[in-house]
Every structure is written in C-alpha cells, then in structure tokens.
Design a protein that fits this description.
heterodimer, A: alpha+beta, Butyryl-Coa Dehydrogenase, subunit A, domain 1, Butyryl-CoA Dehydrogenase, subunit A, domain 3, 3 domains, 4-stranded antiparallel β-sheet, 13 helices, B: alpha+beta, Butyryl-CoA Dehydrogenase, subunit A, domain 2, 10 strands, globular
Chain lengths: ~375, ~350
C-alpha cells in the first residue's frame, strides 16, 4: 500500500503552488477581499495554465489544495468556474455536453449549481421551486439562494420540483435542468457582505416563468435528487481539499511569523506543542480527504467516508485557525491569518453543513446494524 | 448574586441599550460611535463610571461595572469595549496617578476620547522609547488611534514611562472586529513636558492594572455570548429543515442548552472573582465561551449567518478580536500557572 500520489499529480501540485504564489499577490488578495469582485482575469490565467481538467480529478484536487493554501477566495473562485460539470459528464446528453460542458471546460463559459433555496439549505428534498411541463417545454418558477457564481455563470444546473412530494419519499419528484442566466425571467442579485470567501460570487436568484427547453432536462424527470447527491459526493471531496489547503495556509503563516521571531520564542514548548497539534490535524485531514477522493475518483464512492472527510477537514481548518491565533494574538490583526480565519468558516456550512455530514455518516453506519442482524 | 441596586442599574442600562443601541447596532459598526452616542453615554455616567462623583464619575462599584459592560455587550460589543477603554484603560489610570484631571472631565462629559498604547499583550516589546524628554517610536496595533490623546507606554534605559502624547502619524486599518472603533498604526515624535508624564515604572503598574481588570473583559465576552445564544435559540424556533424546527433536533437542542448552562455558570463566576489570578482565568474562559457561542450561532444560522445583514457573523469576528485585543494566552497562562501551581511553573 502506497500513500504517495503519482508523480504527475505531485508535479501538478508544484506547478499549482508556484502559480498561486506568483499570481495571487498580496495586493490582489486584498483587492478582491475588499471589493468582493469576481477574479475573472485570474480565472482566465488558471485556464490558460491548464489547471482545470476534470478528466484528471487528482490534479484538480491538489490544485484546489494548493490554491486555497495561498488564498481560498481566489483559489476556489477560479477552480469552481466549472462547478457542476461532473453532472453533465455523468448524466448529460451529447448535445448538452457539446453546448454547455465542453465550452465550460475550455474556459469559455462559467457554470453554477443552483440547489439551495431560502427555506431549504441542507434539506435538499425540501426545495419548492417548481418546474412544470408546458406545450413549448418546461416552465420554471422559484427562488434560489447562496448560489456560487450566481451572477457570473452562463448557466445553472438547477434542481426544481416537477411533482409534489409524497410523505414517504420527499426526495422524489425533483428534476434537474440546465437554465441559462440570460434567459427571460432569470434575475440574479449579488449578495455582498460575506464574512469571508469574498472573492467568490454569491447570488440570490429568482426565476419567473422561465421557459426551459425539453432538451435542457438532465437525466430522468423526477430523478434529480439522486443526480445531485451523486454530485455532492464529488464536490464534498473538493471542499475537504479546500479545508486542508486553508489549514495548511494557516500553518505556513504561523511558520512565517515564527521565523521572524527570536529562536527563544520557537523554543518555547507551548509553541512547539501547538505546532505539533496543528501539523497532526492537517496530516489526518489530508489523509482522510485523499482516501475519500480515491474512492470517488475510482467510481466506488463511499458517502460516509466523503462526509467524514468534509466534516473533519472543515473542523480542522477552523480549529487550526484558533490555535494559530493563540500564538500570534493581536499581531494577526489585519494580516492574512485573520483573512484565513474568516475564509475557513464557510467550509462548515456549504455543500452540506457539518450537521448534515454527521447525519449521513451515522445513517450509513447504522445500516451496518441491519447487516449484522 | 446581584443586589437590588445592581438589578436596578442593569434594568436602566438594558432600557437604554434596547431603545438607543439595539436598532442601530449595525449602523454604529459602519459609521463608528458618534458624538451623540458619546454624549448619551456621558449623561448616563458611563464614561467615568467607576470614578468618584468628585471626579465627575458615577461611583459604580467593580461588580456593578462588570454588569454594565455585560449588559451593553449584548446590544453592541463595540460600545461596551469603548466604555471599557475610556474607563478602565484611560480614566482609571489617570485617576490613580492623580494626573491630568481636566482630561478625565473631558472624557466623562463625552467631549473627548483617549486611548492606551501598550505592548503588554504582545509577544515582544514595542520599540517606543523616551530619551531625555523625547518620545519616539511606533505601534502597529493601536485601538482608537484617532483618539484626542494617547497614553503611551515608552521605555528608557532604566525604566518605563506612561506619557500623554499625540501621534505624528496614524494609519487606520479595517479591524477584524469592533468595527465601530478604529484600529491601526500610530507613530510618535514629541517632546514630553513634565506634566505629560503620567506614570514612572509604568510597565509593572500597567501590567498589574490590566491583568487585575480582566474580569471586565470577561463581562464583555459573557454579554456577547448571551446575545449570540439568544439569537441562535430564536432562529432555531423560526427555521425549519426536514419539516421540523431546528430546535426540535436533539443535537441542536442539546448544544444550545449546554451553552446556556455554561453562560449561566460564567455569570455567577463573574460576581465571585476575588483576585487577579481568578480574573485572568475568568477572562480566558469567558473569551473561549464567546468564541464557542459565536461559532454555534453562525452554525445555526448557516448561510444567512455568513452574511453581515443579520449581524451574526459580527459575533464571530468580535469574539476573536476581543481575544486578540485582551489576551496573550501564553502570558496569561504563565501568571495563572505560577499562582496556582508553583512560582517555578511554566519555566521551560
């Protein structure tokens, strides 16, 4: 059993690290954090450098880690410009791939996943946006919330209810559709004033009598929930990598801080123990993330393991920030460490809160009782 | 237990905070603590709360002042910290030194503001010196750098001084928390006349004063925790997921109840702290509580909490910022260890 990643992936990691250090300058990081603008020019450079390729997901995973290590806001914004592409890769028709997926993977279009609603976040089956059959196609009405890339995406992979839920199977009757941002009736509004990850574009979107052509329905009608859950199994691994990268970035900053201080400070056992704790937490988070990724990328996903990775790595990112602050104290004020503290929090919320991850884990484990019986 | 007099005081402060702070708390964060608010705080006697009436003070005792800070922090942590800064870190020091009584009066009336510039919570001393009567140096971590005057801790070859000065240059930075109060860089180059020297051997005296008033930081932290928890409980009764209210889920209910218990215990402890060691310990625990409560509130609110509109992310920033401003964990734990274990503790 080897814990080493293939040489090609390690080379990508090095390239990603160098790219992020070169392109995500202090000035740009501060600019996008302050203005909450979307870093479109950097996104283009990321494409030109060939970092976005869902054909080799390990390369994307280590790139996510290394980008977020330098700046989670810019890092995630650029890589998530193809957000949801796996949905079309796995379930899309050739026409859908031609029209939406390939241009996105070439950097010509930006995609987004529109699932969360004002009244339904983690509870995906609780969504109330409606998509109904009509003579010309489908009519969409609804309201989506906290949609990453919401105002910059060219198209959304959107989940809406096509049939009323049954009491026993609330997740039945949900259908996935591709909806273009510029269509009539689509109104995205950028949400500003986020705690962190301010380079990411986040929007509230209303859909009013939007006509969706028949050919834009993805997969089977009424089976959208399963498609989205399959996608979450993939996307959560990337959020875990985002968390690992953020945590590693915090350790980097702490080491930079310590390097500037007299050796006597580094020799304090209290400081050394803190470093040991941080390093151990990150190593454990990275290992569980890679193990979950290995399952997902080999088409043998383990939802419990994926949820463990997402939940644990997010917790580690936040815990590591707290430990680092105990050492650096007020000197962290206005520094990048402070920014990573703000950025880290989202990892416990998006793509399924930590509470939802715990539910997924426990349900999968409880199934084993039945197996034992 | 709070006395009847203290309950009356808290009720008065609560009424003021509800009527004049609660609805504008977000505006205060964006625009700062205005002169009008300062005037109102002055009218209530909160800018020289602990000083005797002969010094324009409100003559409030120590534990009552903690209750005032705790109550105000529930509505605006920035205002509570501002009062702590003006009272504890400026007016009380001037009063104890029996210096510059005219400045005490100006702060008490809301006419001017002061700040304290020191390095007691930093890992390494700052380079602010006094040579002869010449003050020079800079500090990157000044709270309220645009105050009307600064009390600056400066070192000479043999001792240290606290002097009253005005910076030659300030640069404001956006702070992590308490955004109603400015934060940033200040540099000094000034001749200090004799009447501007507030304390000699100031390092030790300041340390002693700051550590001994740690319970006031704890009070602010407890108030913030209580407010964050109240908002989390409120939201858990409004928000549904999986067709149930959030509070109906066992883990959520348990963690909210547990937090309530921790806060109530901490409120009791606040009234019981007897010495500096107790107060530092109380501060450390209360700061940890504030960080946990704010994290819990943000988690309960989910994505909505991450946006500044609802004021929940503010708790998350403020609680860490208060920790950074008021505590150096290594120094705090060293004092406690030496007190409760042995003077030789925390050596290596």
């Amino acid at each position: 059993m080897s814990f080493e990643l293939p040489q090609e992936v390690e080379e990508t990691r090095k390239r990603a690290r160098n790219f992020a250090l070169r392109e995500f300058t202090k000035e740009l990081i501060e600019h996008f954090d302050e203005t909450e603008e979307y870093p479109n020019e950097i996104r283009k450079k990321v494409f030109d450098a060939g970092f976005i390729t869902i054909e080799n997901p390990w390369n994307m995973l280590v790139t996510m880690e290394e980008f977020c290590r330098v700046d989670p806001g810019i890092g995630l914004s650029t890589l998530a410009s193809v957000f949801g592409s796996e949905i079309l890769l796995l379930y899309g028709t050739d026409e859908q791939k031609e029209k939406y997926l390939y241009p996105t993977l070439k950097g010509e279009k930006i995609s987004a996943v529109a699932v969360t609603e004002p009244g339904a976040g983690s509870d995906v089956a609780g969504i109330s946006s409606r998509i109904e059959k009509s003579e010309k196609g489908w009519i969409l009405n609804g309201h989506k919330m906290f949609i990453t890339n919401g105002t910059v995406a060219d198209h959304y992979y959107l989940l809406a209810r096509s049939a009323p839920p049954s009491k026993e199977k609330r997740h039945h009757g949900l259908t996935l559709a591709i909806v273009e941002r510029k269509w009539n009736g689509v109104n995205p509004v950028k949400l500003k004033g986020k705690l962190g990850m301010r380079a990411t574009d986040t929007a509230e979107i209303t859909f009013e009598n939007v006509l969706v052509p028949n050919e834009n329905i993805v997969g089977e009608e009424g089976k959208g929930f399963y498609i989205i859950m399959t996608f979450f199994n993939i996307s959560r691994v990337y959020v875990a990598a985002q968390s690992v990268g953020t945590a590693q970035g915090i350790l980097d900053l702490l080491l930079e801080y310590l390097a500037e201080k007299p050796a006597s400070f580094r020799e304090m056992e209290y400081v050394q123990f803190a470093l040991a704790e941080i390093s151990t937490l990150i190593e454990a988070a990275r290992n569980i993330t890679y193990k979950a990724a290995a399952k997902v990328f080999s088409f043998n996903p383990d939802p419990a393991l994926t949820s463990m990775a997402k939940y644990y790595a997010a917790e580690v990112a936040n815990q590591v920030a707290n430990i680092a602050f105990k050492i650096v104290g007020i000197e962290a004020s206005g520094s990048k460490l402070e920014k990573l503290y703000r950025d880290a929090k989202i990892t416990e919320i998006w793509e399924g809160t930590s509470e939802i991850e715990k539910l997924v884990i426990s349900r999968m484990i409880l199934k084993k009782i039945q197996e034992v019986k | 237990m709070a006395s009847e007099e203290q309950k009356l005081l808290v009720s008065m402060i609560e009424q003021f905070a509800k009527e004049e702070l609660e609805n504008v708390a977000q505006k205060i964060e964006k625009e700062g603590i205005s002169k009008d608010i300062r005037k109102r705080l002055a009218e209530l006697g909160l800018l020289a709360a602990t000083l005797p009436q002969s010094e324009n003070g409100a003559d409030i005792d120590r534990s009552s002042f903690s209750l005032v800070l705790m109550t105000l922090a529930k509505y605006s942590a920035s205002v509570a910290y501002f009062i702590y800064l003006q009272n504890t870190l400026v007016n009380e020091i001037l009063f104890k030194a029996q210096k510059r009584k005219e400045e005490i009066a100006k702060i008490a009336s809301g006419e001017s503001t002061g700040t304290l510039v020191h390095d007691i919570n930093l890992n390494f001393p700052l380079e602010i010196y006094i040579k002869g009567h010449e003050l020079y140096g800079a500090n990157n971590f000044v709270i309220l750098p645009d105050a009307d005057f600064h009390l600056v801790l400066a070192r000479s070859e043999k001792t240290s001084y606290l002097v009253m000065a005005n910076p030659v240059k300030i640069e404001k930075k956006k702070p992590l928390g308490f955004r109603a109060i400015s934060f940033g860089f200040a540099s000094y180059k000034q001749t200090i006349e004799e009447d501007r020297i507030i304390l000699k051997d100031a390092d030790n005296l300041l340390k002693s004063h700051i550590f001994d008033t740690s319970d006031q930081i704890a009070a602010i932290a407890i108030g913030m925790s209580e407010s964050a928890l109240e908002k989390a409980i409120e939201y858990s009764k409004e928000r549904k997921a999986f067709e149930s209210y959030l509070y109906e889920f066992q883990p959520i209910s348990a963690v909210l109840s547990d937090m309530k218990g921790r806060i109530e215990e901490m409120k009791k402890a606040l009234m019981l702290s007897e010495d500096t060691k107790d107060r530092i310990l109380l501060k450390l625990n209360a700061l940890e509580l504030a960080r946990s409560a704010s994290r819990l509130a943000l988690q309960i609110y989910g994505g909505y909490g991450y946006l500044e509109d609802l004021g929940i992310e503010r708790y998350y920033r403020d609680s860490m910022y208060l920790t950074m401003l008021s505590s150096n964990y290594i120094k705090d734990i060293e004092i406690i260890s030496k007190n409760i274990i042995s003077p030789d503790a925390f050596k290596i």
